[in-house]
């Protein structure tokens, strides 16, 4: 059983999955959002393919640790997932600055701006999941 990490955006969902030993996170895909039905159908495919048991959703918090509008949307998304996939365990993981960190990593790896735009959410999902996995050790 693996753990899936999600970075939720308005237009995309970055997806990462742990290895079987739950030590490392690998970026899997970026889902282009096209309505709840489509989003959940694609997530179900990944959940089934990778035998996911836990879903870690990035929770964007404000720097003062409060939860703003984007954080509320992440909580609502988690609630919808719990109804759609009740057999899974769900966790919210603080994702402050993960997108900025992902951007820096991609720039350091000399990834072009055009390519960065396509993979930034997947890389942010990797960081969210990797942070969660580090806490399990």
From TrEMBL:
EC numbers for this chain: 3.1.-.-
GO cellular component: cytosol
Compartment list: Cytoplasm
Residues annotated as domain YqgF/RNase H-like: 1-102
Key words, A-Z: Cytoplasm, Hydrolase, Nuclease, Ribosome biogenesis
Coiled coil: none
One of the GO BP terms on file: rRNA 5'-end processing
GO molecular function: hydrolase activity, acting on ester bonds; nuclease activity
EC primary class: hydrolase
Name of one Pfam family that matches: RuvX
Family, as annotated: Belongs to the YqgF HJR family.
Cited function: Could be a nuclease involved in processing of the 5'-end of pre-16S rRNA.
Protein name: Putative pre-16S rRNA nuclease
Classification lineage: Bacteria, Bacillati, Bacillota, Clostridia, Eubacteriales
């Amino acid at each position: 059983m693996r753990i899936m990490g999600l970075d939720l955006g308005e237009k995309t969902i970055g997806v990462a999955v742990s290895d079987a030993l739950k030590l490392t996170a690998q970026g899997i895909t970026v889902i282009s959002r096209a309505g709840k039905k489509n989003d959940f159908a694609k997530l179900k495919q990944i959940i089934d393919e990778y035998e996911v048991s836990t879903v870690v959703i990035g929770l964007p918090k404000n720097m003062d640790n409060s939860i703003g509008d984007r954080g509320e949307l992440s909580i609502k998304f988690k609630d919808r997932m719990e109804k759609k996939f009740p057999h899974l365990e769900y966790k919210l993981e603080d994702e402050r600055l993960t997108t900025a960190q992902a951007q820096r990593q991609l720039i350091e790896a000399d990834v072009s701006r055009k390519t960065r735009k396509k993979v930034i959410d997947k890389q942010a999902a990797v960081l969210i999941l990797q942070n969660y996995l580090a806490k399990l050790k």
